[in-house]
Structures are given as C-alpha cells and as structure tokens.
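Protein entry
_____________
===
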Amino acid sequence: MAFLTSTGATTQQVTTATEPPSLCLASPVLEELKVHPNGYWGPYRVLHDNLVDEQVREERVAAEALLVKARSMFERRFGHMARKERDVVLAATTSQPMITMSREAPKQCPACGSQGWVAGEANVQGIAVHCAACDLEADSKLLFHLGDLDEDVLLDDDPYHYVGDEPPVDEDIYKGR
C-alpha cells in the first residue's frame, strides 16, 4: 500500500502477497478482536479464500495489461530517439507531476523506468500513480501489484504543518446554545 506521510518515519509498510488491500479489511479487525478466521467465516472460509485468490489474479492481470500497454506507448514515443536525446526529452517531460492532490512524490515508473509520480493525501494511502513518459496510470487498487509503489513515500515537510494547533470547537458555542 503506497501512501504519503509527513511524519518522517523510516519504516516501510508491509502487506501480505496473497491478499490485496481491498480484501484484507476483515483480517486486521478479526486479529484485533482476537477472533480466529475459521470461527468468523465458518463454512464460508473456503469461499472467502477462493474469492480472495480470484480477485488477486484479476488485479494481477489488470496490472500486467497496464504495464504492457505503457511499455508499448513508451516504445512508440521514444524508441526511435538516440539515448542522449531521449534522456533530455524525458527529463523535461517527467519533471512535474501530471496528477495533483495534496501531495505528490517522484517514483520510478515500473513500466518504462522514467520518473513517474505517486500522489495522495498526507498520512493516507496513495491514491494514484502516473508516468508522463508512457502514460501509465493506476489507482490505489492496483498499486499493490506494481512493484515498490506500495511502500511509504517519505516527505520532508514538517508534520506539524498538517496538525492544527487550534483546540476543538465546542459545538454548543458554535451553534449558539
């Protein structure tokens, strides 16, 4: 799971390779409640596991299709150029993010190796990745399957920039009670 953080943390978030983020919501809840998955899912555990496996396969195929399409686009755009010329064009093309959210950070594109951009909200899972060189675009559902895009992106910003110093507003005062 990729997300942007302003806390300066250096540890990377780890996810299991068998369960994508969209399907693993119940697992941490069950673990926190100290409920064994077999006890929760009962006879439906096999169905749950099959659905997880099926969704993982579908997402992997979708991610691979995006990579193939992006690599083909990159080759059509830049394959005819000399290496030095291509590097100059890519530096100009990929220097700024094409997606904008509260935070963007440069990341190497898994399709073409150029500089892509991952974007999201501070302290929240990444929302999207985009590469201007090959037109790779993926949302948070597929980031899990695109290599190192599912690790933390560290920001240099001061975390207190995102934490308000204002005390919480008393609702009674706010509503005139």
Q: What stands out?
A: The two ends are 44 Å apart (CA to CA). The CA atoms of residues 7 and 123 lie 8 Å apart.
